[in-house]
Specification:
alpha+beta; globular; 7 strands; two-stranded antiparallel sheet; 3-stranded antiparallel beta sheet
Length: 194
Amino acid sequence: FPERVKDIFITKEVNEAGCYAVKLYINGEPEVVVVDDYFPWCSHKDNWAFSRSSADQEIWVLILEKAWAKVYGSYQRIEGGNIGEALPALTGAPTDVLMHEDIQNKEQIWNEIKLADERKYVIATSVSSDQSRRTHDLMKSMGLVDAHAYSLISAHTVRSGLQTVRLLKIRNPWGRREWNGDWSDFSSKWTPDL
C-alpha cells in the first residue's frame, strides 16, 4: 500500500537542508519526528550500515529507519523486534497477533487472513524455526530467512486439478532469498491457467 507509506512522510521531497519530518504513532499518539540525512555507512561493505532501498537513489527507507531509531534511542535498540510493535507506530492502527500453534482450527486462521486481505489491512507474517519445530538449515534450504518478518501481500484460493489450494503471496522486505518449494516461481505446479 504505497499511499500509506507516503502518508508517513511530512517532508515529501529531497531538500538542500537535509531535514526530514515523518509522522509516527508513539503510544497511539501521532508525533512528528525530525531527522537529518546523515546515515551510518559501513566502509568495509561500502554500503549503508543498516537498511537500504532497492533503488539506489531513494532515501525514504533510511529516513524512516533513522526516525524509528531516534524514537528508541539508537540503531542498536531497533535491531530486532516484533512486527506487531512496528505496525501500530507506522499506521496508527491496532494490531492483532495470531500464533499458528495456538489455533487448533486452521479454517479459522485462513478465514481471518482472507477477511483481513479483503479489507486491505496491512498483514505480516514471520518465520521461526524455534516456533515451527524445524531447523534453521531446513528454513534456509527452502529459501526462507529464519527469525524474519515478511509482508503478506495477498491470500488466494485456487483450483489445481481436483484440489483446492490456499496460497499466500509473501515478500521478503530484504529482497534476498526466495521461496523455492511448491508454488515458487519455478514450481511445476503453475499451469498456464493458474
